[in-house]
Every structure is written in structure tokens, then in C-alpha cells.
Please model this.
Amino acid sequence: MKLRQKSYVLTVALVAAVLFVSTFVLVLQNLRATFSAIESRAIGEEKALALSVDGMLAQTPEQNRAAYVRGFALYDSNGATFALGRGEKTWVSIEPVPPEVEPGRVHRITQNGRTVLAMADTLSDGVWLRFGLDVTDELDRTVRQAIGSVLVCTLLTAGIAAALYFMLERVNQPVERLAHELRTPLTVIRGYGELLERAKLTPEQQHTAASYIVSESERLGEISQKLLTLADARKNVFQPERVKLNDLAAHLKQTYPTLETEIGWDTMTADRALILSMLGNLIGNAVKASDPGAPVRMRATPGVIEIIDHGSGMTPEQLRYVNDPSHAKNPSIRSGLGVPLCHEIAALHSATLRFASKEGEGTTATVRFGADAAPMAQ
Amino acid sequence: MARILVIEDEYAINDLIALNLGMVGHTAVQAYTGREAIKAAQETPFDLLIVDVMLPDTDGFKVYEKLKGTPAIFVTALGETADKVKGFERGADDYIVKPFEMTELLLRVEAVLRRTHKSESCYRIDDLVIDFEAKTVTKGGEPVDLTMQEYALLEVLVKNRNIALSRQKLMREAWDVSFLGESRTIDVHIQRIRKKLGLDERIKTVYRLGYRFEEMP
Model:
């Protein structure tokens, strides 16, 4: 794996880990809070019962108490059970009676797959109360919710991590290609410079060396220009304005004399400089693919601009690459920054750029604009 | 004099490598795609391939596999293929990373040729004969007595003929020493070689650079 990919994976893993761990901690805390809320409710119910029993006992004569208290057998509350008595005597017991528990704390008892919160209390005159609350369903629900949250969070984390990875790839990719493009001119300039400095060359060889140095320096200049345009496009220095298609065509014809235009779209909304850069790139590629002097056609119809050439065309592999440069697998396709830049400019205009091509027959690049640019179409 | 096939799709770099190889007396044949290279090599075998890893129609490794048996130096671009080349190290004879120094490439070429016994065994110019295997020099048929240092210096100059080498480079390549300063020792030895072999016209001082052995003064 490349160092760059390693650092991506590391970044993504780190973000995913932080996201996952923090969600996990949140879910855990939430779970704990819910448990203690359930426990508080159990304590509340027990205290309420104890208070009402105590109050009633105080108003009832000693001999009638047991009979009276049996009336509590009608006590009916969500899953609550209790037993009440004095000394050895049990006055009332609603099954299942929680087993002997220490007073003053809440016990969690699990039997037959049910979970019961059990408490014991001593009331006045040696009357005891044992209370149990079946919280199985509530606990199940809470745990199910927690598992659900963790699952959702895992999915989200995976999604975010994947999105982040691809974003990192996309952001760095043209820069990488640029770094690659720099190597050839650097090797050439250095090599011929060395040769001029160290070798005794014939005048023709000197001329060759010097002209290679000049042409490769120009290439460096072009790369830096492209980089600047790319940086602008990145910074979203995007200033849409009304652009006359005929003006664009006239401008492009000055650079590309073999360009033939057919304009059926009057005005579009676009960033003039960026659109010119994109069309210039596409036309430049078309001219390069065509025989010297052969015409290249630019056809504009409302919402669509096409650049058509009858040049050498592209192999299926090259075609795949120019249609989706971000997924280039084969590094030997050296198209440079031009095509990714065109895609980027198209995307800024909510437009799509598609190439259709046949080897030996030529290529058509189609830029299809979205609704933002189209309303002004006539 | 080795026959070397240069396989590189960038014309400027291909020309550059060919020009440099020609300078030091090799015969360079240029190919720009893997297909051309395989065709050329099947017609007449080569002593060495200098092959770019990334070619428009295939990759350099495939060309190398096809021409198995011919030693190869791979030209790679930093970061992208270094790993791949490492895996290949046993097969490939050497590799060099772009952007590279031409003298560096020439030294590697010479090293591979020497290892595969394809380097020139002797060099003749005027009435001088240098036997690289016996490490002896004769002038007009008479053996000339050179010290080890003088001979090593002469060999490096002749192997990189027509290209100026700095004093540091000469020290490192001829004597395998690389310390700074004191590179004027080279001057003293050059003076002696010139005197002993009558090479005043051949071994030229290049201003601010070093020395160059010139085939055509």
C-alpha cells in the first residue's frame, strides 16, 4: 500500500474509532441512566406502598389489622408483587413473593427468565414489607434500543468513514497526477542541462537540447497554469454571469483556427473564465487527436454543448478513464490534469461531461447543463 | 561497445538517454512502445534494456518478461512503482528513479554490463590501447607503467568519455573515496596521466567542473 493510502486509512480509522467510541459511551450512559430510572421508579412504588400500608395500620385496631391488610391483595400495579406480615406471620403474599432480601438496598433477582427488582422495608410495630417489581419487559426494551443505537451508529460510522476515504482520494488525486506530470519535464530539463554543461555537443545536438529545455519549460508553465485554475475552481471562485455562446465561440476560434461552430443557444448562465477553460481543454484535446488542419466542431443547442472530432479516437480503456478519471486504475494513461479539471468545472455548473468515442473514428464530448444554466436558453 | 534498447514513451527522455549512451560509445536503439521494443529485440538481440515501467500499451515488466534473458534497468517514477520494483529486484538488474542524473544512469549501465560481461574489454584511440580486463595500458605497443590510482582514474574518464566529470565524482568512482576538500589530488594525478600517455589533447579541463576525456578533440 502506498504511504498516502496508509495515511488515508489511518485518518479514516481514527475518525471512525472516535465516532464509534463516543457513540458507544453515549449509549452506555443512556443505558445506565435508564436502569437507574427504573430502579428509582421501583423504590418510589415501594415507598408509596409502605407509606399507605403504614398509614392504614396506624388507624386500624391491632386485632383487625391482618384482615384489613388482606384487602391489599387487590393491589394491582404493573408487575408489582409484595408480601406483608409481622414476625413469623405472613398476612398477605402476592406471588411471586421475592425471597428474603436485606432492607435498605435494591436487589436484582433473575429467575425463570424474568428480572425482578426486590426491596425489603420495616414499618411501625414490627410489620415487614417485601416488595418486588418485574422489570423484564422494560429492561428488554432498553437493551434492544441500545443494541439498535449501536447498530445504527456502526452503519453510520462505516458510511462516514467510506465517504471520508473517497473524499480524501478525490481531493488529492489531481494533485498526485500533477506531481507525476512534473517528473518528465524535470528529468528532461535537468538531463539536457547536464548534457549542455558537461558534454561536447555538435551544434545540432546543442540545438536539440536547448529546444527540449524550452519546450519542457513551457510544459511546466502549462502545468502551473492548470494548477492555478484548479485551485480557483476548488476555492469556489465561481461567478456565474450571462454568457453569450457566440462570444465564447469567437474567443475559442482565435486559439483554435480549425474550430467550426454551430451555435443554436444564445445565452447561458456560467462562469465565463471556467467555461472557456473547459471548452478550451476539450477542443485542445480534439485538435490533438485530429490530423493536422482537420476541423473540430463545436455544436451548441439549448442546454447542451458538444465538441466533435473525427480524429484517432480512444481505446475503451482510455474512454473509461476520461468518463470517470477519479477511478483510474491504470497509471499509464497519462491524460494529465485536463480531463479531471473539465469534470470539475462541469460539476460546478451542475453539468455532466460524457465522452463517446470509437478508435479510428473520432470522439464526441457532450456537456449537458442542468436547470441552472438552461432557463436562459431560447 | 554495447547494443542497448531504450524503451520510453516520452520522446524527450528517450532522446536524452540515447544521446548520453551514444556519447560514451554505446549503440542505442529507441523504442516508444512495448510492442515496438519486442519487435526490435526479436530481430536482433540486445545487451541491455533501459525500460520505463509505465508504457502506453503495456508495462515495462511485461516487456522484460517477454525478452527474458536480456538484462534490464528499469526507469520508474518515485512513489508509484518503487514498491513494485522491490518485488522485482531479483529479476531486474537495476532501476533508477525519475528525475535522475544522467551520469548516474551511465554508471549503472556500466555496472550492469560489467556484471553480465558485456562491457567493452579494451579501448583503442590513436596509438593507445587500454585493456580493461588486464588493467594495462600500452602506447605504440609499449606497456606504460601506471599506478593503481592513475589507471582507475583513466578508466572512469574513458568509460564516461565525452562527458565532463567533477573531481568529487572522479574520486568517488575511481578511488571509492568521498571526502570533501582535497579534490585537487585529482589534478596531480591527471597531470601525470597526461604526461605518461601524451593525452594533453584528450583529457580536457572543463572550467569549474572537472575533466572530460574527448574522443574528438
In short: The helical segments of chain B are 11-23, 34-43, 60-66, 82-88, 102-115, 148-159, 167-175, 184-197. Chain B has two domains: 3-115, 122-213. Residues 102-115 of chain B form the longest helix (14 residues).
